[in-house]
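#struct-help
A.M.: can someone run this one for me? Single chain, 371 residues.
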Amino acid sequence: MAIIERHFPPSVAQVYAIPKPGRDGAIEWWTTQQGQVTPFAQLSEQEQSALLQRHAQHLTQLGSLAHTLESRGMQPQAELLRGLLTPAEPATMYSVEGRLLMTWWPNKTPVAAEPASSPPTNPMRRWVWLGLIALLALVLLLALLWWWFMIRARVPVVPVAKPVAVEVAKPEPEPEPTPEPPQQWPTQVAFVLDTSAAMTRRTALSSTLRKELAKREIERIIGVLPPATETRLVRYAGKKCVADAGHGAFEASRRGELLALVRQARNEGNAPLAASLRAAAAEMDGKERDGLIFVFAGGDDSCGEDVCATAKEIHREKPRLRINLVDLTGLEKLDVCMALSTGGSAYSWGEQKSEGGGVDLSKEAERMLKP
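D.P.: on it. Structure tokens below:
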């Protein structure tokens, strides 16, 4: 759970219910998810199919992180995650208003207490056992309170009135790279801008349109780019399931043209996210030079392609190319594997809480661009 909480938003850890003993000695399962809990067997056929699909997506997220950890030499952590990659067990699955909840942990199924036997003849022995049980219950309660406090303290959120990106997934920190020869710089930067119809919707819990958030943040990032950095732009090709031809590279003196293309983008049609990633990567080095791709997306790929597989293929061919995902839905709906599998970061949007803090994407980009 510590690994999952470190690399994913709280919604991923909340898939697993929390076991604790009940008053009658039986195991009770608790969840921090809010809403009506419905057993799998009581769902309609369509609802069951949707829940099984969410289970498969959950396992894909864990598998992607396990692969990333293994590639970084963190084999024990990767094996722990792979222990959760088990087939769906309908008897242990529940729907919390459409969200997945599971009450079974692989190889760690809590065992209910044995039925009480006849009272011991030695009163002193009985009081010793009662004391041990009370101590165990106290330790478990303190552990649950600590866990709950950590969950509440680490929820990543951002304000409604002034949305700011919040990082929701980030790989293990890498060692400081050795300074490269001057001829291998500048870093290349490409923006993949979702121009599908989904961008005309508002971000959850905010009155701001997704397309307006994307345009504003791209302008802020471009404003901090070093003069030598090459920039490119890839948009979706309207109602077709292909990426447009792409624009750039733009030198520092021509970045105004790039911003004009961003502002003039029309939002309609499908979302060929995977095709747009390939189009952006095709114009970048990624082998001898570092490169960053910032994806501003208002939804998943709607053209039937596997974005995770596409990102992994890009990483194999161009290992110095990192993909950074900016989820504009405000619901943490997009799969972060495209970022995790390439060593990039993922960000989302939501409601600011007192214990939460925002991430300035322009400063994040400035940090990533340092040699």
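A.M.: thanks! The chain has a mean pLDDT of 80.
D.P.: also worth noting: The radius of gyration is 24 Å.
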